[in-house]
Amino acid sequence: MQNYLEFEKPLAEIEGKAEELRAMARQNKEMDVEKEAAALDQKAGDMLVDMYQSLTPWRKCQVARHPDRPHCSDYIAEMFTEYTPLAGDRNFGDDHAILGGLARFEGQPVMVIGHEKGKDTESRLHHNFGMARPEGYRKAIRLMDMADRFGLPIITLIDTTGAYPGKGAEERGQSEAIARSTEKCLQVSVPLISVIIGEGGSGGAVALATADRLAMLEHSVYSVISPEGCASILWKDSGKMREAAEALRLTAQDLLQLGIADVVIPEAVGGAHRFRPETIANVKSEIGKLLVELSGKTPSTLRRQRRKKYLDMGSKSLG
């Protein structure tokens, strides 16, 4: 069953009417409703195109958060072979909000790390809705260290509202863990490619996305704070999230223009949640191109260019 977003309600009504006609025809074989149903399908298709050609930043946030979008585990299952999950930070425990392990990408050994939100109530609770605790980032650091030691490219898949803000996480050094993970991203001597597959929220995303190349899905978002959080701080009113989304410039298209994102990966009309295989195939194709682009660079060149990339972002924003 299709989960419709708030702004898709008119589309839901038309598709619902088409399905009602076909249901009536299934009950009464003498009814011929296919012409009327096909006309409704055409109208719904045209409406879908119009909707997704002119999505506002707030609507893009809604699409990026859609529960039916492919999750990290889906990308790992479809894009990689011989995936061997690795667990724990060797200090406190294992954080299920961050998945990671050794795998092969088109035959090439790699390290893959990503946020997992979960797909239903049980799995979302298990993965803490993709909000990592300090041990999650320390696990990521451990895996990046391993990849660096064995010369394996690192691929990270970002989808989180942000790091977990709970008391226990803060007591165990949440901010320090995020800073160390970001530092490790800058230090590794192997290619590091990050893909924002849904939400890229705050330092919880930056900790895994300080990469040589940052790719974003067409309807993904990446921001220092959620629109609701921004609205609560600036206007003391979380209901102004639409205005906040506009001001934050968090869409893939804005971030490509600002030089934060390096490439925008297209989604089929209607978003990744409607066309999961096509979206995963597009992501796989882009990662393959980026790996080829980075494969010929020496470790010192990778580190130097990665450092320059982020220093240039700061100088451009100040200028």
Please, could you describe this protein's structure?
By secondary structure, the protein is an alpha/beta fold. It folds into two domains: 49 residues; 253 residues, Alpha-Beta Complex (2-enoyl-CoA Hydratase, Chain A, domain 1), CATH 3.90.226. It is 53% helix and 15% strand. The protein has 14 helices and eight strands. Strands 1, 2, 3, 4, 5, 6, 7 and 8 form an eight-stranded mixed beta sheet that branches. Helix 10 crosses helix 11. The radius of gyration is 21 Å and the shape is globular. The termini are far apart. The mean pLDDT is 91.
Nutshell version of this structure?
By secondary structure, the protein is α/β, with parallel strands linked by helices. It is 53% helix and 15% strand. Strands 1, 2, 3, 4, 5, 6, 7 and 8 form an eight-stranded mixed β-sheet that branches.
